[in-house]
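Write out this protein's structure.
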Amino acid sequence: MVMNMLEKQMINCMGHQNAPMIISIVTSVIHVGICYVMSYNLGLGIKAPPIASAIFCFNQFIILHVYIKYFLKDEKVQQAWFLPTKSTFNISGLTEFLKIGLPSIGVLCLDWWSFEIMMVFASGLSV
């Protein structure tokens, strides 16, 4: 799920918002159908939604990969997106990655924590 979210965020930041949105809508509709089939037709009951969520995230991940690789003709996106190779795991580039990655992680954590704090405060409000 994390890789899927990161890919969607990368594509959105590079100015291609429509494709991830359409992919999310299509896979969400498919997700509802998969939940129904797994819950009622296959008789999985309460076990079906987590399995269907995993299938949902995997479908989004694969469809977004295929879209980026074969259909998106933006040169900047093609340079930014790549499959891991031997040079990907080279330690010498780790410091450069950490200079960019650690502040980004901090921003994402602050975003998540602020949402959680907001939920705690919202739960304290009466009806």
